[in-house]
Specification:
The complex is a heterodimer.
Chain A lengths: L1 E2 L3 E6 L2 E6 L11 E3 L1 H11 L4 H11 L4 H17 L3 E2 L1
Antiparallel strand pairs in A: 1-5, 2-3, 3-4
Helix pairs in contact in A: 1-2, 2-3
Chain B lengths: L1 E4 L2 E5 L4 H7 L12 E3 L3 H10 L5 H17 L4 E3 L2 E6 L2 E6 L6 H11 L4 E4 L4 E5 L2 E5 L14 E12 L3 E4 L2 H10 L7 H17 L2 E6 L3 H11 L2
Parallel strand pairs in B: 2-3, 6-10, 10-12
Antiparallel strand pairs in B: 1-2, 4-8, 5-6, 5-7, 8-9, 9-10, 11-12
Classes of the chains: A alpha+beta, B alpha+beta.
Chain lengths: 88, 230
């Protein structure tokens, strides 16, 4: 699992946003706003973490069952794949 | 020739009369070395003219030399905001919107109703962060008109303008970011965009950002001035 390098993650005025550069400007118009768990997933991917440890990290910060978190992480990763943000 | 724009020394090669006339108030004959170099071959402008035949060669030179300036500005803690910028009582007020919304109309109402107000740049002011404060600058690149002053003025606030009943309110940073990104230079280069985003983050925390809806009456000026004055 690797993030497409043509995306910048920044915290701007208290919000995590992802902005496309290079060829990615053709895939995503504008920008993406990340909520807390999505930011944890993005940073986890940046640091080469596996899904288990990302789920673990979310679990330590949010009050939800492991199954729910796993499902949400999977759904988010699939969405990233759809937009070619996550490559293999 | 050398110019001084937004307190930066700019080395530029000029081919046509339009650009030459617009840079006159900015000509610099000092000894300082150039911060920004705009050296674009004639062929580049000729190709733009072919691509956009409704623009003359001179207009192409004017527009794309400006783009080059604003792209390089980020290396000096600066960026362009597509807006009309008016100065009143020593403070700069920027009104941004898509073309045709009436940002220039609004700042010209300020000139009409607020004695001593003047336009700093009617279309593309440069914003720079210098010694802990944000300034708006006039530049030679000010859109259809040459309404621009070669000065830098501390910024009081930025409003994104829509037509409607007169009202103004502060907007949260993340919404402001979306509006800002639509009206500034978005680089496809990663390093440049990183710098732009860092600067935008600083702007959104330090400068109050508003959404203004207004008509074309004196009341519109009262609404924006009273809402934004510091």
């Amino acid at each position: 699992m690797k993030l497409n390098e043509n995306y910048i993650l920044k915290n701007i005025a208290g919000t995590a946003v992802v902005v496309p550069v290079g060829d990615a400007v053709n895939d995503i118009k504008g920008m993406i706003t990340l909520n807390g768990p999505a930011e944890i997933i993005w940073k986890g991917l940046q640091n080469g973490k596996n899904i288990e440890s990302i789920v673990e990290e979310i679990k330590s910060e949010y009050d939800a069952s492991e199954d729910v978190i796993k499902n949400d992480v999977d759904a988010f990763l699939n969405k990233l794949r759809t937009y070619k943000i996550l490559v293999d | 020739m050398k110019l001084k724009v937004a307190d930066l020394i700019v080395e530029i090669n000029i081919l046509g009369e339009l650009l030459l006339s617009r840079v006159q108030p900015y000509v610099y004959d000092g000894e300082k070395a150039a911060d920004i170099v705009i050296e674009i071959p004639k062929r580049y402008y000729e190709n733009k003219h072919k691509e956009f035949p409704h623009l003359s060669f001179e207009e192409c030179e004017y527009l794309w030399s400006g783009s080059s300036f604003y792209e390089q500005l980020v290396d000096f803690d600066g960026l362009m905001l597509h807006s009309s910028c008016v100065e009143y009582e020593g403070k700069a007020y920027l009104f941004s919107a898509r073309s045709g919304t009436g940002k220039s109309t609004h700042t010209h109402l300020w000139l009409e109703y607020l004695n001593g107000a003047r336009i700093i740049n009617d279309d593309k002011p440069a914003i720079r962060y210098i010694d802990g404060e944000f300034y708006a600058y006039g530049t030679p690149w000010s859109g259809k008109t040459d309404e621009s002053e070669n000065v830098g003025v501390p910024i009081a606030g930025i409003a994104f303008l829509e037509r409607g009943e007169n009202s103004i309110k502060r907007i949260p940073g993340i919404l402001a970011l979306k509006l800002f990104m639509e009206q500034t230079v978005r680089s496809v280069k990663k390093e440049t965009m990183e710098k732009t985003l860092d600067l935008l983050g600083k702007i959104l925390t330090e400068i109050p950002i508003y959404r203004l809806t207004c008509d074309m009456t004196e009341d519109a000026v009262k609404t924006s001035y009273n809402g934004m004055k510091v």
